Amino acid sequence: MKFSNTLIYWYLQNNRDLPWRKSKNPYFIWLSEIMLQQTRVAQGLAYYLKFTTTFPTVFDLAKADESTVLKMWQGLGYYSRARNLHFSAKQISNELNGIFPSTYEEIIKLKGIGDYTASAISSICFNEPTAVVDGNVYRVLSRYFGLNTPTNSTSGIKEFKTLAQTLIDISQPGTYNQALMDFGALHCKPQNPLCETCPFSDSCVAFEKKLTKELPVKEKKIKVRKRYFNFLVIKTEIIKQF
DNA sequence: CAATCGTGGCG
DNA sequence: TCGCCAAGATT
């Protein structure tokens, strides 16, 4: 069976019921994608609900003060996301008549949106076959194909993006992309992946060669840390009495 | 292009 | 307690 078909079959049975999946409104998908950058679903969920309630449309978000937006973002981290989100909301509201751009090429021009987010929005909302590559995708593909190219290297980024693009189901790219990420998050987990009940266990290279724990490979970056040591030298004077 | 940006969960 | 990581983007 084709990779994408197996994946989507798994997804239809195991996908998470998340609020942003009820909609294809690019404004909502955009909000969710920005919030979930480097952030777990469990952490971002409450913020997504708060934002969509307070700002039901891009106009409402654009009208708000930046300080208000930042306060609502408080606790989520990476605050430049909130500033870029607000900046782009104003741009969409004022210059694009509130209409979200509908192609990858146009979407990626927005501040705060890079390759991943542009691919996610264009595939989910506009059915454009643009493959997403996030941490989940690196892990699943590196294991399934047994690839040890460091995922944080320049060549690795290109290699995985190209590979993901060849695997995409062009008839339902949004579903395929979300399936791949959900599969990575729930099944092909970083630690203790569920290989025993995996639909890919007959074709996964890492499983066959017992390399699951070794993949994906990340180039180690040396973290310089300063350590300060204080020494207390104790001298005792021994007085010899005789 | 390597460093940086936050927070919380996990072993 | 510590290092690693989690739906990345920017400079």
Q: How would you characterize this protein structure?
A:
It is a single chain. The protein has 242 residues and is mostly helical. It has 2 domains: 16-131 and 171-186, Hypothetical protein, domain 2 (Endonuclease III, domain 1), CATH 1.10.340; 133-167 and 188-218, Helix-hairpin-Helix base-excision DNA repair enzymes (C-terminal) (Endonuclease Iii, domain 2), CATH 1.10.1670.10. It is built from 12 helices and no strands. It has helices spanning 3-14, 26-35, 41-54, 58-63, 66-73, 80-95, 104-107, 115-126, 135-145, 154-167, 173-186, 205-208. The longest helix is centred in the middle third of the chain and has 16 residues, at 80-95. The chain is globular and about 55 Å long. The protein binds a DNA duplex (11 and 11 nucleotides) through helix 2, helix 3, helix 6, helix 8 and helix 9.
Short description:
The protein has twelve helices and no strands. The chain has helices at 3-14, 26-35, 41-54, 58-63, 66-73, 80-95, 104-107, 115-126, 135-145, 154-167, 173-186, 205-208.
Helix content: 40-55%
Helix tally equals: 12
Contiguous runs where pLDDT drops below 50 for at least 5 residues: 225-229
| Main beta-sheet annotation | none
Radius of gyration: 23 Å
- Structural class given helices, strands, pairing? mainly alpha
Strand residues, percent: under 5%
Distance, first to last CA: 94 Å
CATH class call of the largest domain: Mainly Alpha
Please report the total strand number as a whole number.
Answer: 0
The count of domains is 2
CATH topology of the largest domain: Endonuclease III, domain 1
Examine the secondary-structure arrangement and name the CATH architecture of the largest domain: Orthogonal Bundle
Question: What does the overall shape look like?
Answer: globular
* Mean pLDDT score: 91
Write the CATH homologous superfamily of the largest domain.
Answer: Hypothetical protein, domain 2
String of helices and strands: HHHHHHHHHHHH
